[in-house]
Write a structure and sequence with these properties.
This protein has four helices and no strands.
Length: 175
């Protein structure tokens, strides 16, 4: 064998060993850590649970806003009753539509004013028809927090007036 052949064989062998080592490292790095997966799953489950609580709170605020509008003589907005067995994302989706209807009704009836009125409808990025929503537990929790933060000022405005009219300090008690 010539020196050139031996050098070529040595180079090929070294390259093969390097590729084998890299392949082994890649396989090691891509193997999921069961403990980490379990921890992520638990965190996602907790976030999902928190999202469901917040969505329930938003639904209660919306029901109380309807009741407040009726109490204040503004009438009852035309909002369909929704089934209770919907998934969390669907409940959030419906809460957006319901919020927009309640806000429009409260503003046109003179119950709400100022920064609540005169704005375009609330259409968050996660709302259907726009960006694909992140429906993981963490994504749902973020959406629910956003929806709750949007609903709170309208609920506060209607409830404050309803409490003043009825004298019932617990008119809009949630928890």
């Amino acid at each position: 064998m010539s020196l050139r052949t031996i050098t070529a064989i040595t180079a090929i062998a070294a390259l093969a060993l390097t590729l084998t080592a890299c392949d082994g490292l890649m396989k090691t790095d891509t193997q999921p850590d069961p403990a980490a997966q379990q921890k992520r799953a638990a965190a996602d489950h907790d976030a999902q649970f928190e999202a469901e609580i917040m969505v329930g709170r938003v639904e209660v605020m919306q029901d109380q806003t309807v009741r407040g509008l009726e109490t204040l003589g503004a009438g009852r907005p035309a909002i369909a009753e929704l089934p209770t067995d919907r998934d969390t994302y669907r409940r959030l989706y419906d809460a957006v539509e319901r919020y927009n209807a309640l806000n429009t009704f409260a503003c046109s009836g003179g119950v709400a004013s100022g920064s609540l009125c005169g704005k375009p409808p609330y259409l968050p990025l996660w709302y259907a028809g726009r960006a694909r929503p992140n429906t993981s537990g963490t994504g749902l929790k973020t959406m629910a927090e956003e929806m709750q933060d949007r609903m709170m000022p309208l609920w506060d405005a209607v409830c404050a007036k309803a409490k003043a009219k009825t004298g019932d300090e617990h008119f809009c008690a949630i928890e």
